[in-house]
């Protein structure tokens, strides 16, 4: 089995030495990191290995832990490199795309697509891709005592000038309202972090984190937050659905976010925060009838997407392609 260059750290987990899984996610995309972590939570006895480099830039002669299979979230270059080295790869497209064919897995990889079963189509052809269902968090419970606002912001793939304007003109007023009405706001972003910090600079009660930081756990932050605002992304939608929690979308940034928000709206009444002075987003109803996910039940099996992907990885370890 090929030996991959790793970051030199000892692999996490308690699995057998021969059953290691390489995890690669596009660090600049919120959905990719969330998908990788949610699948990793279900690997059981397998040992996850993170790689500092999987391409030609890896230091020659540096030998890390041998791996038997890899999960790659969205990074087609990494998938092609690993396939060429003879390593079985599950390539997972984590986010919503308008042109999925352009983001297809390279030949030789198993292609999976994060897609809740209830999400309305139509869908463009995606080659041999198989829908996973919803990649839900491993722990569905929320804390009984919650406070503050969690804001998941995805600026991935947005042109820099547009993302910078969005951060200043759209994000800052909403964060100010979140602090004023809920006492604090934790912002987790995937790209253009500098612009986000510039836009929110000087605001008391605001914490800004990057999704690429392994110590930042949006699923755990959500469990402690009272209000949830998020860019229209699949990772945010499945988080709220799994916990039957209120969700308010940020105004969409880009055509893909707009398309996803429109599809979700056809199945569940998720509001969009367009007015910072509107009290509705900050006072979610406690009534079960107001649960936006109420009409999607029964859909328990659809929430097991992460388990399905993890099961495929285990099968590949035992019977590689």
UniProtKB/TrEMBL annotation:
It comes from the Bacteria. Residues 271-299 are annotated as: Disordered. This is CGA synthase-related protein.
